[in-house]
Amino acid sequence: MSTHNIPLPPTGSTLTTKGWHQEAALRCLLNNLHPEVAEDRENLIVYGGNGQAARNHQALQDIIHALKNLENNETLMIQSGKPVAILPSHEHGPRVLIANSNLVPHWATWEHFNKLKDEGLMMYGQMTAGSWIYIGTQGILQGTYETFMAAAEKHYGEGSDLTGKLVLTAGIGGMGGAQPLAVKMANGVCLACDVEEWRIEKRLKTRYLDVLCKSFDEAIDLALKSVKEKKAISIGVVGNAADFFKYVYDKGIRPDLVTDQTSAHDPLNGYVPHKMTVAEALALRTSNPAKYVELSKLTMGEHVKAMLAFQKAGSHVFDYGNNLREGAKQVGVTNAYDFPGFVPAYIRPLFCKGSGPFRWVALSGDPEDIRVTDEAMKKLFPENKKLHNWLDKAQEMVAFQGLPARICWLNYGEREKAGLMFNQLVREGKVKAPIVIGRDHLDTGSVTSPNRETEGMMDGTDAVSDWSLLNLMINTMNGASWTSFHHGGGVGIGYSQHSGMVICADGSKDMDERLKRVLNSDPGMGVARHADAGYEIARETARKSSLKLPSLKI
Ligand code: NAD
């Protein structure tokens, strides 16, 4: 029974605040905490471990009150989920500025952070939790679809999808559970194992997975048959990844793609060692944590060895951002890093084009508004087959959570076009209320995360976060509705810094100008960052556009 009163986001076309930018911030904040969206509403946790929307319940009430009374020439300052000041500003800039979880680098450890958190002085903002633009599992589904489609294009040629291809993976929990559906959306066959049956059952119920097979052989046979028939399907089986991957390899099967999303980032509370039942593993976790971690890492070693064997035999193998290679390396698999992470393998070329996760939310709360925007997007980009496929399938397969929203990846240039088009839809009354546009912090110009998004940069600048700060500054200056700067999202405290941007298309002429500026500068910084690091695709993107890069004489 809830002891706290967290309101649902207001919907409809009537303001409950003094302007659409503060209204958008209020609706998106409360949407992050919507019962269909938040993982743990009572504790204000939106997603991703402890990613919170506000520091505590008092801070949440104070933010709501501040947004409701905020004037159009004032800006609300949020420090780690607490409203700390309302300052005079001006009409054309952000109504809210947010800084979450930031620590001076020398003190940037979980220990120091947790101490401050326990004292009520900080909160973990993750990426879109503390910056109020999370839209539920659609975000991870689309990102996963984009990755598999990028892999298909890289390996099988432009315009290809995964038709007739076999993808082997493991870990179909909270986020990894998007893999089976994403592969199916890309028309491939997904063969996935998870050590816990209830997790697989959950994916079946939510239609993220088609079939649960009783045995390894049954799952393999069905997968091979489906590949032959070129039938898109997702197949689950209960098993430890280290055992299942070896079993598939020993049978002589060579999947086209091999990856994994078991929770290997956490060897104690996430990953499950093999050669024991889950119940035995859970008991060992509490009785002897050190032994558990040792066995967990040894299992990661076997798991990675199987993946390396697939790679040697011709499969395309990649790490999916869960630190699995590191665990294996620590137990002596010295060549664990022989297969790449997903960003250098597939996503970086997209980042070089200024591409990234562009999302929008219908503030009206009416799903029909998203249908209108989907159709308008297809008209705006008639040639983009991948986008059309995604939008059609998303309409059919994705259930909205909280306020209706959509996500797709758009390049530099395209985001600006889409933003202006949305503003026009609002102006002409084709949608019932303003549309808010935002993105993940995992984007081309906004994130610095050496173990993930900026792994293996061409010039070795993986850990240089000047870029994320410049991204924040230009988006703030150019008139976003709210901007944010966070530390530790995705990979944990000490490992990343990143900025967020949200802008509300309210239909006004002023917003035409602001949208043009922000949706240019935001991905523009991504193109500049990658061009500066030496990526030719980024330099070519800059050359073909109006982007000026003085050091490169572009
Ligand atoms: P989760 O804890 O919800 O799910 C992990 C799943 O792995 C569980 O279902 C668990 O039963 C299963 N599992 C654990 N050990 C196993 C083993 N040895 N064999 C088979 N199954 C096993 O976690 P999640 O949110 O799905 O995230 C999974 C991992 O992916 C995390 O490490 C996360 O950091 C990473 N991740 C990366 C990205 C990205 O951008 N690439 C996005 C999301 C998550």
What does this structure look like?
The structure is a single chain. This protein has helices spanning 20-32, 57-69, 110-118, 138-156, 178-185, 197-205, 216-229, 241-250, 278-287, 289-312, 324-330, 342-352, 367-380, 385-397, 414-427, 466-478, 509-533, 536-543; strands spanning 45-47, 51-52, 74-79, 82-88, 96-100, 166-170, 189-194, 211-213, 233-238, 257-258, 316-317, 356-362, 405-410, 435-439, 447-448, 482-487, 497-505. The protein has 554 residues and is an alpha/beta fold. It has a domain at 161-340: Rossmann fold. The strands form three sheets. Strands 3, 4, 5, 12, 13, 14, 15, 16 and 17 form a nine-stranded mixed sheet that branches. Helix 4 crosses helix 5, helix 15 runs antiparallel to helix 17 and helix 16 packs antiparallel against helix 17 (509-533). The model has no long low-confidence stretch (mean pLDDT 95). The structure holds nicotinamide-adenine-dinucleotide. Nicotinamide-adenine-dinucleotide (NAD) is lined by residues 140, 170-176, 193-196, 199, 240-241, 261-265, 270-272, 299, 320-322, 342.
